[in-house]
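FYI - complex with magnesium ion, inputs then prediction.
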Amino acid sequence: MRVSQLLMPTLREVPAEAEVISHQLLLRAGFIRKAAAGVYTLLPLAWRVVRKIEQIVREEMDRQGGQEIMMPIIQPAELWQESGRWDVYGPELFRLKDRHGRDFCLGPTHEEIITALIRGEINSYKQLPLLLYQMQNKYRDERRPRFGLLRGREFIMKDLYSFDRDEAGLDVSYNKMYEAYTNVFNRCGLNFRPVVADSGAIGGSGSHEFAVLADSGEVNILYCSDEECGYAANEERAEAVPPAAGEKEPLLELKKIQTPGCRTIEEICLYLKLTPQKMIKTILYQTEKETVAAMVRGDREVNEIKLYNALGCVRLEMADEKIVRDATGAQTGYMGPVGLNGIKLVADNEVMLMVNGIAGANEDDHHLANVNPDRDFKPHMVKDIRLVKAGEPCPNCGEALLEARGIEVGQIFKLRDKYSKVLGATFLDENGKAKPFVMGCYGIGVTRTMAAAVEQNHDDKGIIWPVQIAPYHVIVVPISNKDQEQVQTAEKLYQDLVAAGIETVLDDRPDRAGVKFKDADLVGYPFRITVGSKGLAEGKVEFYSRCKGEVAMVPLNNIVETVR
Ligand code: ATP
Ligand code: MG
Ligand code: MG
Ligand code: MG
């Protein structure tokens, strides 16, 4: 490719709307242009990077036995109504109607579509396990689309779904994906960490986030200073530990959780991946002034879930709840769900987590009738749970915990029978018994990974692409395009490099050398070859490595070998 022909509209100024470095640099270096808030056109350089990341992802998915498919972006509302998500997904779901007035949405994720597909196509345990994935545009009407490609409303995601016959099979699939994700981000040349993620429910299903370390990241990671231990957790999920002896009990307002885009308790629950379902153990209730959700500690069994009252509140019947009777058999007390963890909606997009408040009562259901956090959740009753902080001992090995910021580029998640059950997707086991598929879902943000790579690899001159995902590997720059020897040598080098399979760009523009160097640094080509008269007099050209910042004079006939 010749720079004179390349659609790479660079900007001198830092665009005012861009807050983070990847957004600024991808705009300035001519990789992306905005079409609407959170919606971007990917210009040639960006598209090359995306295709490289996709190819790495594809190879690692295929290596684990993944099969690539392509599901529709437009999804019928019926499926979402069947799963119950049409009503709870909230305003992040792009909804639309066809000409007949039928409801559809643009896929933010594909659990419904794929579970319905498998429900119809797979009926025997012999056909399992199954790993299916796609690479596709996803749509989420984020309340605050920002940071360019980091949080778009249209973005590219790889999403894989695993179907297994049992929990042991799910573990195998999950571990395969854990390995695949580790390979993907290593191959992309990124510094990242898999962190234990908050999968919503207390004591809920397994999940890891893969976070690229960068100061601009929105995820706060606590990780062990002992590399061999390897413990790392999203701060929200950091293990709860009891306070040390003599230490003051933490206050009620232990932690604020950001829940961007959430205005109703349904949205908050969805955001926190809470649903009033058996495994999730969530109680929702509403008082006059506020909406409150309470989660029952994860070690307790839930027997049954009932709609509790007209406000749509949900009541969970605990396995260990019992009515306390005296010797005559009369009811004197009721042991209800003590040990509630409360979430209180304090602002439009903010909830407060109250730890171990107790909303007990001595009468059946009384504790759920009108629970009031100030009356029923006594602050002084808060005890024995708090979140680990940096500097404290690692819950795994006892070494000190360190803190870092990260960008969530991927997440893997054990869904178990969450979708297969509600959508009635079952297979027959060896004994001819119908069982729901045991599922997992696994996402990688492809466009977000590109932006995260820039967040992690740049300097004050521009982007420094890891070679593996660079749009081109080498740029050849003649210092003067009036000097025929330079021009011809550059042209010959360019041809030789391309012939050797090296992705090369020739800066054939009539601009000053300074302009060309500036653009090359801004775009972030890993290697630059500069052709100048001085070097040519000795049969040499200058070889510059952008990431090492090193310059060397290399004989012309060695250049292809040097780049390789
Ligand atoms: P976040 O917490 O940043 O909102 P998420 O947890 O909602 O992300 P997932 O549902 O786990 O995202 O989707 C899988 C992956 O898709 C994420 O790990 C991320 O890399 C990517 N992704 C999610 N939302 C966006 C977005 N708005 N723009 C770009 N990529 C995104
Ligand atoms: Mg999100
Ligand atoms: Mg997330
Ligand atoms: Mg996620």
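The radius of gyration is 28 Å. Residues 408 surround magnesium ion (ligand 3) (CB under 6 Å).
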